[in-house]
Design a protein that fits this description.
Layout: H1 12-42, H2 50-74, E1 83-85, H3 86-97, E2 102-108, E3 112-114, H4 115-130, E4 136-145, E5 148-156, H5 164-170, H6 180-195, E6 199-205, E7 208-216
Parallel strand pairs: 2-4
Antiparallel strand pairs: 1-3, 4-5, 5-7, 6-7
Helix pairs in contact: 1-2, 1-6, 2-3, 3-4, 4-6, 5-6
């Protein structure tokens, strides 16, 4: 009988560092754009670009705000909330998708979901959107089934892709030779879904990437 491989384990401090780097990677672009816009406003030789600078600052500030609100729930403790309004989760996801090429089709049936389910919906939605670099549609569905929430996300579009380290992270495997920034989000999802007694998986098809998760509902 062949022994099953031991699950990958990462030190808490190391995981925190990877997650922090992952979030900073998202924040740096709009933050830098705001600084560039402010530099233009202060440049006496660029006063004819004042309107463009204000547009850049406004758009980048909105993007940064959307990312911060999204990450507060997707990665953070989000105060003491244990139940999340599905409509608010859709608003957070739509804010992130506003800067993606993919469209979001939100079809979550329950009015409210628990914290692990909320985190799974947001993280998997962001990962599904990233799997469509040239555009397409991400359909997010969730239904109650036998005391659990069944979540499915289908990212459909040309040139859809999913890195091997993402699939490995969802299975609880290490990053191998892959990029930690892509792996850590998937591994984080694996951790909190497993801690909640659920399971999560990903699959690559023809012009399609699918994520599925099952998370027990509170008794």
């Amino acid at each position: 009988m062949t022994d099953m491989p031991a699950p990958y384990a990462v030190r808490a401090a190391e995981l925190a560092a990877y997650l922090a780097a992952r979030m900073c990677h998202d924040f740096i672009s709009p933050a830098s754009a705001i600084v560039s816009g402010l530099d233009l406003l202060e440049d006496p030789a660029a006063q004819d670009m004042r309107e463009d600078a204000m547009d850049l600052i406004g758009a980048s500030a909105r993007k940064l705000s959307d990312l911060l609100q999204f990450n507060r729930v997707a990665f953070g403790a989000s105060a003491t909330a244990e139940t999340f309004d599905a409509r608010e989760l859709e608003r957070l996801a739509q804010g992130v998708f506003a800067t993606m090429r993919a469209d979001l089709d939100w079809q979550v049936e329950p009015a409210g979901v628990n914290k692990p389910a909320a985190r799974a919906l947001l993280n998997l939605a962001q990962m599904a959107g990233a799997a469509l670099p040239t555009g397409g549609t991400v359909r997010v569905g969730a239904v109650e089934q036998s005391g659990s929430l069944a979540i499915t996300l289908q990212a459909s579009g040309p040139k859809s892709r999913l890195r091997t380290e993402v699939l490995g992270g969802l299975r609880g495997e290490g990053p191998g030779e892959g990029l930690h920034g892509h792996w850590v989000q998937a591994y984080y999802v694996h951790l909190f879904v497993s801690d909640a007694g659920g399971r999560v998986s990903g699959e690559i098809g023809e012009e399609c990437v699918t994520f599925a998760a099952t998370i027990p509902s509170p008794s």
